[in-house]
Amino acid sequence: MRVKKYIRGLLSVACFGATAWLASGLAQAESLPANSAQDDQFLALRTAARSDDQLGAANLAARLGDYVIPSYVAYYKIKPRIRNLVAPESEIREYLTRYDGSAIADRLRNDWLIELGKAGMWSTFDEQYPLFVLNDDTQLKCFALTSRAMKGANVADEARALLTAPKDYGQGCTSLIAALMQNRQFTDNDLWVQIRQAVESGNAAVAKRMLVSTETSAAAFQQVIDKPALTLARGPGADRASHELFLIALGQAAKSSAPLAATFLTGASARLTPAEMAQGWAQIAMPAAFKLAPEVIDYWRKTDSAPLSYEAYQWKVRSSLRAGDWALVRSTIEAMPQALRSDSAWTYWLGRAYRHEGKKEAAQQQFQSIASGYGFYGQLALEELGQKITLPAGPTPSTPGDIALMAQNAGFKRALKFYDLNLRYEGIREWNWELRKMNDRQLLAAAEFARQSDVLDRMVSTSDRTRQEIDFTQRFPAPHLEMMNANTRPLSLDTAWVYGLIRQESRFIKNARSQVGASGLMQIMPATAKFVARKIGLTEFGQGQINDINTNLLLGTSYLSMVQNDLDGSEVLATAAYNAGPGRSRTWRASLTRPVEGAIFAETIPFSETRGYVKNVMSNTIYYSVLFDNGPQSLKARLGKITPKNFAESDLP
User: Are residues 28 and 109 part of one domain?
Assistant: First the structure.
């Protein structure tokens, strides 16, 4: 009797849910008048699809039978029903056939493959996966390895190479780990590496999903995360799992106090193997590295040859750079997995380490391998080879005929339509899809078409893809130059630096708005705009003016000047402050125990966004300086040295 009541309850809930779903779908469609603009209906359709509102999407799609982008109308109609494979397979296949070769069809195939992987429908998955053109979804790569493993293939090495960034793990990757544990392609070592890596990157929920392959309860694991001191006080137990939980607890405790965690580790040394001790020091070193703690270098030196995560390898090098331990810089980079070691940053710093050890030829080889690159470390490597930064000869301009061909490109037309609708994500997807198979001449013509269409972010991005023919006027545009100079000259602010910052901030999108509310070319936060306006006496400023180009430049340059003056004129510190806030920039500087190169300071900024931001802005600035000054430039000279506040030469040991 109780079971029948339970079933009736489920049915009533289901009926209520279906009624609510029907009502929401009807409300979505009926909220727009029948004579509303098609663009408004299309935007409502997109919202319905992204909310998994099947009925609302169907009703709105029915109104848009002659809309200018039919492939997206059809996509948004079917998308809510892709989830859990509600849509019939025949309908999905018909869509993929009708829009074969388009960006949105590839997107739909991505959506479908995820659901096929979740459902374990491997026959259809294996048929469709090779047709997924972009192949940029980590979860799908995990599903593909799972499918092969279930057919008897040994994929352990491929899985280890893939599973390095837990933030990208979905169900597909945790399922892959479970499958490889079950068929014994992964060992307990592999599993605990993955669990530690997930916790280290702040993804405890991902780590918890992997616990099903251990004998550790979710409650015990959660206590390690929330109250690591309790685990450390008990010490490592007798079995493997308790040792691993002790190591994880060290990392958690080190977030509050690395010295305290170090005390617990030292106290447990008699019950841990040398390999576990080394891993324990690595667990402590990572949180200490993020805090730029001076004692972190001692922790890293005790890690010996412990296997590290990709992030830990990089922070071991960064801490070594700050401490001036070039031997540890070299040995750590040499121990990196090849995929990580080949990054231009570590190629450059390995070259510097070799040179410091007197290995001039080995250093030159490292620098030469990246000196042709146009980014931060390519520029620095060029200078290490004794050359200044200049511009190559520009290419032959695109002809009107070349540009006319781009104007006829259907994907570009869709992209521009999306830009008009302020749907930049869709616009970028359509635009970039068309660039995949273009040669340099076609890319330059596409970039020029973007310039003429006033979508400068696409111009910059497109021109950045060329390899042999380089047009720096496309890559580094300087719109509104007269207006810019009128704002920078009274402040004695370097115009090249401001353009370098804008290129990174907004890519010259005039109405750009970030997720946190920053606006305009210089991406100014509302509170900052109000503060600066008051400081400079702009008495009639209103938030509605923030996207006005001249007002945005006035406020942005004024703020940048204030920040630079507060930080002793350092462009590196001021650039970091513009992105992360002056307080953080001052804190990072205060953590220095000695002067360091500007490049070392930039590389060791704890925030990954700010770290990349500073390097990109300073690299951009150099190219703008070359363009404006029409002469060679030095990035190393511009970066200079970053010293602790009020530092004097007499402070040196």
Answer: yes
